[in-house]
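Let us begin with a simple case.
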Amino acid sequence: MRYGRAIERGDGRDFPYYDGDPLPLSVVQWVTVIVACAVGFLVLSFYPAADNVQSLVPRFLFAAIPLTVFIVFTRRHWSRIFQRTTGRDVLDMVAFGIANLIVSSVMGILVSIVFGANANTATDGVHGAAEVTTFYLGTAIQLFGEELFSILPFLAVLSFCSRGGMPRKRAILVAWLVTAVWFGAAHLPTYGWNVAQAFLVIGVARLVLTLAYIRTKNIAVSTGAHIINDWALFTFTIVTTGALL
């Protein structure tokens, strides 16, 4: 049973793999995909990179490792995580990107007042046009990797729940919440192990981004929304700190 049109479009699109369309993945295969996501994250976290040029390597591997494993299992059907991107999809990218900015900003203010917050240091050391260019290129790759890191486990949890006989709507809800916690936990080191910031700001922001995928069944939309959100924040920081000078 589908959610209403406020959540899922009325275009008949459904999530791939969980019900055997276009092919089923076994529990072992899904667990391997999740492990590959974790390995990619570890590479991103611990690969020694001195600047944004060198950071292109771990950012690329962060996306490439889970995607490669996923392609091995799904073969020519791997592209079902994408859909043909239309003008309507582009509008959804912008809408969800703006919504995420609003939600994450509000949550960030509230968490900062109640619990305190740590700054995101992603733009530290970004100075000069060349460094800024590689920073934006690298973060675009990394943000696609973050969508794979979230959406592939979402589809895995959806498959696990469906195998256990859980109704589709409830399975979507469980997968949506579980992967928000998964994503928030991955950001704990980024924010100095501030639990409230990782789960109440980043985890809630993940709910918005995953909702973009739930609505469109197109990882390009959630990736586009993610890039719009993060690039807006990065650009504000870079401009206000004079990093281009």
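The second case is a distinct protein. As before, the sequence precedes its structure tokens.
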Amino acid sequence: MKKIFLYREMVASLVRRDLKGRYKGSVLGFLWTFINPLLQMLVYTLVFSIIMKSGVDHYYIFLFVALIPWIFCSSCVSGGSDCVFCSKDLVKKIYFPREVLPISFVTAAFINMLLSYLVVFAVILISGFGIRWVILPYLIPVAIVEYFLALGLCFLCSALTVYFRDLFYFLGILTMLWQFLTPVMFSQDQVVAALSVRSPILLKLWYMNPMTPVINCFRDVMYYKRVPDLTMLSSAVGFGVFFLIVGWFAFGRLQKGFAEVM
């Protein structure tokens, strides 16, 4: 931790490089950070509010308050898994704490998530859906918990991908499947109603998904306008701490062979 703190300027530099290079060469540049979620929201509104009616009031808001944190986590797993290998020239030639690479990747993705949420806030206010400002601060601990969860997963996946290159391609498919096992496009109540009687075992497995409590907490604050369920928030904290510890120690053990394998 002390070494990483000493290399904090390197982390900041890599974060800036990632944010600036994300839309490098495009005419609108950094504005795509705001335009992209807005266009996605318009498409989902057209599909689920007009063509395929979902039956959920303000479904586009219901979806996007969960979709944005989901995109952040999935990108840290699938895209972040390659962050060490793609910097192999840097790893081979320069000494620095290798943890800097996953940290900078996840931090850049986290900043992008926060900027995307500004679009959601704007749409919520313009649409008249409204925000309960009193409970809005609850988003802070939820976002921090998700950051540590994503960081732990990125540590683990990026270290393993150095040794098993096929894992990068497998994770792209896995995250696509993972999305349909997470209450992003549907509500927690729908899942409980469907599985509680038919398959209690599947329901227990459902709660083992680390993103389930995170998504539910985001939706509680932004869509249902209520304080996050304490059980869900506690589960989110537990998953975040667990995966951060596992990812941190796994990365520490595996990074010793990075240079030789690359």
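The chain has 13 helices and no strands. The chain has a mean pLDDT of 86.
Keep these points in mind for the review questions at the end of the chapter.
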